[in-house]
Specification:
It comes from Mesobacillus persicus. Helix content is 16%, strand content 50%. With 256 residues, it is of the alpha+beta class.
Length: 256
């Protein structure tokens, strides 16, 4: 009977179950996530080689003039040493880990989730999936708010395959695309694009693309040759917060 149970467990019938409970599902980049992994043994004793949590998202990749979503692991965390779970036995494994600073924000089509997997030899590994709501930290939120205060509206926010010059640890970037709807930049710019590269909670490098509106024949020729775009890199720190709107306005004006 035990051999039969082991054979069933190896194909996922009567095997261990896993359920992860997060203390909170709303977090900021660089913040701590805590929770407990609940494991319930199946119909036979099984050795769990490891439990690991993976932080996941997807990004848009282009190939042969087609765009498609690609899953990617942003980070991975191992929780335990090998152990054995008996038939029907319940175990609880508490955990905590720090969210990486470069995790994308939960906005637009960008989704972030945690998967919990048990690595069980010769068995179908049980998994669990929990979505997170990742919100901007204070510095990033202040930048996004300042951009809106300057008269821009967020049109789109997507994780896309990173061009070589912008590639860091991950194969994608999260791009925030704004259009001017009021204020001094309406009529001067077509759009404004932002990408964050956080160095710490108190410092972030920003890649900004300013897309000027075509004016006259020369402007249309520049637009056709993509000469109407300016790419800017600059750093914002917590010390900039009191004058952040003015700093961004000055930077955008310089390339408008």
């Amino acid at each position: 009977m035990s051999l039969f149970n082991k054979a069933l467990a190896s194909i996922g019938i009567g095997s261990a179950q896993v359920d992860t409970k997060l203390e909170q599902d709303t977090v900021v980049p660089g913040g701590e996530i805590r929770g407990v992994v609940h494991i319930k043994g199946g119909s036979t004793e099984q050795k769990v080689d490891e439990i690991y949590l993976a932080l996941n998202t997807t990004y848009l990749k282009e190939s042969n003039d087609r765009k498609f979503n690609v899953p990617v692991v942003v980070d991975r965390f191992r929780l335990n040493e090998p152990f054995t779970v008996g038939p029907g036995e319940t175990k609880e494994i508490p955990f905590s880990f720090i969210l990486p600073l470069d995790v994308p924000i939960s906005i637009g089509r960008s989704k972030i989730w945690v998967t919990t997997s048990l690595d069980i030899k010769n068995a179908v590994d049980p998994t669990d999936k929990d979505y997170l709501k990742v919100v901007p930290n204070k510095l990033m939120d202040s930048v996004l708010t300042a951009v809106e205060d300057l008269g821009f509206r967020l049109r789109e926010a997507d994780c896309e395959q990173a061009p070589y010059r912008l590639r860091k640890r991950l194969p994608f970037i999260q791009e925030f695309e704004y259009v001017p709807v009021m204020g001094s930049f309406r009529g001067k710019l077509d759009e404004l694009e932002l990408v964050f590269f956080p160095a710490s909670e108190n410092e972030v490098e920003i890649f900004m693309q300013v897309d000027r509106r075509a004016r006259g024949l020369g402007g249309f020729l520049s637009e056709a040759l993509e000469m109407d775009e300016s790419n800017i890199r600059f750093t914002v720190t917590s010390s900039d917060l009191p004058n952040l709107k003015e700093k961004l306005e000055s930077t955008i004006n310089r390339y408008s």
